[in-house]
Write a structure and sequence with these properties.
Blueprint: H1 2-32, H2 40-60, H3 72-96, H4 105-135, E1 141-147, H5 149-161, E2 167-174, H6 195-205, E3 210-214, H7 220-230, E4 236-239, E5 252-256, E6 259-263, H8 272-306, E7 312-318, E8 324-330, H9 354-362, H10 369-374, E9 379-381, H11 388-394, E10 410-412, H12 414-417, H13 427-442, H14 446-459
Parallel strand pairs: 1-2, 1-3, 3-4, 9-10
Antiparallel strand pairs: 5-6, 7-8
């Protein structure tokens, strides 16, 4: 909780500094420009620009806590991308309101080009200062990890690869090296110690300040022994739970009237969040259907004239909670498979029509699914629905596969914008798609949905693996 609170405060501080730079720079450029005077028009532009940039920076991940391996160049590129979007909206707004004459170029142009430099500059300075503080021995805690298997190794690697978290790994003890009897041979004249006794001695000497115990629940007696031995020292003790399955590590702690529980998988869309998600779907799908109505009519005519068969292809797929829904698509093949066995489309598939090949590559065949969204069967953003036959196969091949059905399927999703779309000719590709789908369910937020929609517009309509 403390780490989460710190991250929230760091993010808030970043937003305040960014807003102050955007507003302050415009005030400075209007003061320096002889023909400009900071007033209502400039104030409105500064306020709108700061709000838009904070939203864009949130979606680009610029307010996440820093880790030592993050690239400064990459951050500056993200700043330029976000600021370019802000400038585009400002120009569009000014032209739309016919207010361009209210702004002097001598004030606005220096502002537009100076802001991204200052936004990147303060981050570079802050990162440099923070790194100097972290490297200060007085501000760095020495950590020891006592673990087993992949979990213990992951904790140790995380500490070593993330110097910005203020921890220095002094030792990693693999639990299989534990021995209840004399284990460590001491120098001549000193008694031999067991590993736990030597650990206690190291703690009292101040060789480490914090210990992370990453052992399975079955080793509860060893965990209790470690805690008991270190209870007579000032070492901070952290338990990293491993409840027999790695999937529990993705869980979130909550309480049931004071009783601690771990939420492993649940739908994020209930209560207020469910209402927000539905409003998002209705507003976006209505607006998009209005825009694409004429292109859809043209596509429907092309499908009908290019080959015999229906315009729409309806396929049974699993929706929320595993209920069957009928998903709409423009027909792109000469067949309409929807039985116990469905063959995925492949490169140069002979079943694909000439019009259908173009529709599939550009994802235009998916446009009728906005009707599914409006009907409440799908969402704009969510895990892509698969044919029932594919679901029945992969649910036996991939652990946790059906958990992706805790939410409504989507037209686009986290997996798709990260490259996991199109043909899944092996189980590994489907595993990656499922992993991304479950990450989305666990980390959903409205800004994340907006980010996915925007990235879909940029990179999601054309895929080299989509046939």
């Amino acid at each position: 909780p403390a780490a989460g609170t710190s991250a929230a405060w760091i993010g808030l501080a970043g937003k305040v500094v960014d807003s102050a730079i955007i507003v302050g720079t415009l005030i400075a450029t209007t003061v320096l420009a002889a023909e400009a005077r900071f007033g209502t028009a400039y104030g409105a532009a500064a306020l709108l620009a700061s709000m838009l940039f904070v939203l864009a920076a949130e979606m680009l991940g610029l307010y996440r806590p820093w880790r030592g391996n993050e690239s400064v160049t990459r951050q500056f590129i993200q700043i330029c991308v976000g600021w370019s979007g802000v400038v585009f909206v400002l120009l569009l707004t000014a032209y739309g309101m016919q207010a361009t004459e209210d702004y002097a170029r001598a004030a606005t142009l220096p502002w537009l080009f100076t802001v991204p430099v200052l936004l990147g500059g303060w981050r570079l300075a802050a990162k440099f200062l923070f790194r100097r503080l972290v490297n200060d021995a007085a501000l760095t805690r020495k950590a020891l990890v006592w673990g087993s298997g992949e979990l213990g190794a992951e904790i140790a690697d995380t500490i070593e690869s993330s110097p910005m978290i203020g921890l220095q790994l002094v030792s990693y003890i693999e639990d299989r090296d534990f021995h209840p009897g004399p284990y460590l041979v001491s120098p001549p004249g000193e008694p031999d110690f067991t590993l736990i006794e030597r650990l206690e001695l190291m703690a009292k000497r101040g060789d480490f300040d914090v210990i992370y115990i990453a052992l399975p629940a079955a080793a509860k007696s060893r965990i209790a022994s470690l805690i008991d031995r270190l209870g007579d020292t000032t070492v901070s003790i952290f338990i990293v739970p491993d409840f027999f399955t790695a999937s529990l590590l993705h869980g979130k702690w909550s309480t049931l009237r004071g009783i601690p529980v771990i939420n492993i998988v649940d739908t994020p869309f209930w209560g207020v969040d469910g209402l927000v998600k539905r409003i998002e779907d209705v507003v976006l799908s209505s607006a998009i259907l209005t825009i694409i109505a004429i292109p859809m009519l043209a596509i429907a005519a092309a499908v009908k004239l290019s080959s015999p068969g229906p315009v729409f292809f309806r396929q049974r797929r699993y929706g929320c909670e595993g209920e069957e829904i009928s998903v709409l698509k423009f027909r792109s093949m000469t067949v309409c498979e929807d039985g116990a066995a469905v063959t995925q489309a492949t490169k140069d598939d002979k079943r694909t029509t000439r019009v259908g090949a173009f529709l599939r590559r550009t994802s235009l065949d998916e446009l009728p699914q906005f009707i599914n969204v409006l009907r409440g069967e799908m969402s704009i953003v969510g895990p892509r629905p698969h044919a029932v036959a594919h679901n029945e196969y992969y649910r036996t091949q991939i652990q946790g596969y059906m958990l992706r059905h805790k939410v409504k399927p989507g037209i686009t999703g986290w997996a798709q914008i990260n490259g996991w779309r199109g043909e899944t000719e092996d189980v590994y590709k489907m595993e990656q798609r499922v992993e991304h789908d479950l990450w989305y369910i666990r980390n959903w937020s409205l800004p994340l949905d907006i980010k996915i929609v925007l990235l879909t517009i940029v990179r999601g309509f054309w895929g080299k693996h989509v046939y």
